[in-house]
Amino acid sequence: MDARLSDILIVGAGPVGAVCALALQQQGIRAHVLEAQPEDARADSRTLALSHGARLIFERLGVWDALEGVTPISRIHISQRGALGVARLAAEDAGVPALGYVLPYATLTAVLKRALVDAGIAVEYGVAAERIESGSDMATLHAADGSTHAAPLVVVADGGRGHAAPEPKFERDYDQTAVVCEVQTELPHANQAYERFTPEGPAALLPKGDRYALVWTARQEDAERIAQIPDDAFLAALYRHFGGRQGLFLSASPRKTFPLKLAYSGSEAADRVVRIGNAAQTLHPVAGQGFNIGLRDAWELASLCGDTPAGEIGSAAMLRAYARGRRVDVLGGVGFTDFLVRVFSNDIAPLRHVRGLGLLALEVLPPLKSFVARRMIFGARG
3-state SS of the chain: helix, strand, coil percent to 5? Predict the structure, then answer.
């Protein structure tokens, strides 16, 4: 069977793959998208935290105004349980309308799906990649349904779930699992988010509508137990764990759990193939860096393709340039989140005091506060 030819082939129609396809079209480059899931697959129930930098990307793609149910984060309160040290970040101090935005994953994917249709970008659903072969001028993707697809560049944006995923160059198992749900608090959130560090792992409250999206990190066996206890016991345990800054916890939605780890595969796979988003790096959710780095992967790759002569797209030289350009941002995000998890997820007394001094410095030194805020918003090159 002859391979079907595309300008650029994108594996994965999730947000990162869709952003890449839309950004490529703005550069005058045609993309063809393959998605393993069926078109009517059940919507993902996760909650996303977008940085202000991500908002700028969606504005440039013309989709931001179509997003409904977006809750801005105007302030972030950072603390550690059982020790001194509090830091507060505010949007006005960073010179942005909001430090970030919270919305359902399903809302974003639905808007991007419509945008792909409106833009006339071809998406084939139910086509799972089995392997990708790199040639001198083309890469050929072999799908599970027997079809083959060829392009001078294959962009893998499948979240690292495909059969063609390489072994990570570096990975770390934190022995942590996230318990996620939505909770109602006694006090209104006033668009303030919380990042609370504990020896068992961080706990985050993100304003979402009139409630909070909760990410409660715990040791794997503890997380499974926490997720299964009755609501009353769960709310009481959460109050003991988090504290009373938002008053009592009044109700909670059904809980789900997700194992947490660091896996870095890198963008370089082979000539004619590049990996972006979670297919290249999977981060711990602390500080909300992973998804936003993936969006910047997609935007930067599309911009580079637009600046590259058509005959050089997908070449080894172009992919090396892409990897160089993304290295500081990606490795900066990987290092930042890994540092936070390993330094704060313990109860070692000397580290506890050092952490308190660090939070105090972040609170009282405006240049340091601006430095941290801009890197959370725009990445390591912010």
Answer: 40, 30, 30
Residue 378 included in any domain: no
* 241 φ, ψ (degrees, to nearest 5): -75, -40
Strands (E), 81-223: 86-90, 100-104, 122-125, 129-134, 139-143, 148-151, 154-156, 170-185, 192-197, 203-208, 211-219
Q: Would you call 223 helix, strand, or coil by DSSP?
A: helix
> What's the structural domain count of the chain?
1
For residue 333, being part of any structural domain is answered with yes
Q: The domain spanning residue 304 has which CATH number?
A: 3.50.50.60
* Secondary structure (3-state) at 324: helix
Radius of gyration of the chain (CA): 21
Domain hosting 20: range is 4-49+104-169+262-344
Instruction: Express each pLDDT in 216-225 by its tens digit.
Output: 999 999 999 9
What secondary structure letter does DSSP report for 312? G
Query: For residue range 346-369, what is the model confidence (pLDDT) as tens digits?
Result: 888 888 888 989 998 999 998 888
What is residue 186's DSSP assignment? S
Query: ∠ CA(276), CA(223), CA(206), 5° rounding?
Result: 60
| 273 assigned to some structural domain | yes
DSSP 8-state secondary structure symbol assigned to residue 167:
P
Whether residue 165 is contained in a domain is answered as: yes
